Amino acid sequence: MNYEQKRRLQELRDELRRLMDEQVESLKAQTFGGITKEELRKEDERLNRIREVSADFLLALKNLR
To answer: pLDDT category, 29, cuts 50, 70, 90?
Structure first.
């Protein structure tokens, strides 16, 4: 694995971790206080981005073989 590949994997991992942390906080907020339409829209966008980053991360891992 070269430096660029390592850096790309780390960037994807960091973004995925950040997005998942945000999602957990959103779910907590929904459980204890409800959610506004704007927050629901942001959550939908975040879930789409989580899917994209997850796919990119898995592809990057697969390309290491």
So the answer is: confident
